[in-house]
Amino acid sequence: MIEANMIGEFRDIFEYIPKTVLARDLVKNTGRMTDLINKAEKFSFEEIVQISSLIGVEYNIIVRLIARQYLKQV
Fold first, then answer.
1. Whole-model pTM?
2. Fewer CB near the terminus (10 Å): N or C of the chain?
């Protein structure tokens, strides 16, 4: 979906993966997870690596999605 440009920025991932599932795996409450999804640049490097492992996407691709989202917000 990323390669097909169906996911263009980090928050788009959650159209396909429930944020509650990822929040549980990262040991975050859903409110905090929502905040991080909206301000994805606040994820730590360790969390980005965990996310990439959990969803089976290379971490550099996750970083690119976060950067794209951040640059749209600036």
1. 0.90
2. C
Token readout for 41 is 């640049």
Q: What secondary structure letter does DSSP report for 17?
A: S
What are the pLDDT digits (tens) for 3-56? 667 799 999 999 999 999 999 999 999 999 999 999 999 999 999 999 999 999
Residue 66 carries which side chain, given as an amino acid letter?
A: I
> 6's torsion region: left (phi>0), alpha (psi -120 to 50) or beta?
alpha
The encoded tokens of residue 50 equal 């965990």
Dump pLDDT digits (tens) for 54-74.
999 999 999 999 999 999 998
Return contacts of 57-60, CB within 8 angstroms, 24+ apart: 57/2
> How far are the Cα atoms of 9, 28, 29, 44 from residue 63, in angstroms, in the given order?
10, 20, 22, 11
